Amino acid sequence: MFNRNPFNKKEAILANTQIQITFGVSDVPNNIVHQVDSLPDIFLCHELFLPMFFYYRRLLGQFLTKDCDNCSSSALKAEPFLATFPAIADQPDTMEMLWQLWKIHKKNVINKKLSEMEEAERFRSFFLTTGFLLHQTVDMPKFNWADARCFTDRQAKLSYFREQYLHSFDAIKYLSRERCHPINIYSYALDIIGPHAII
Question: What's an example GO cellular component term for this entry (predicted)?
Answer without folding.
Answer: cilium
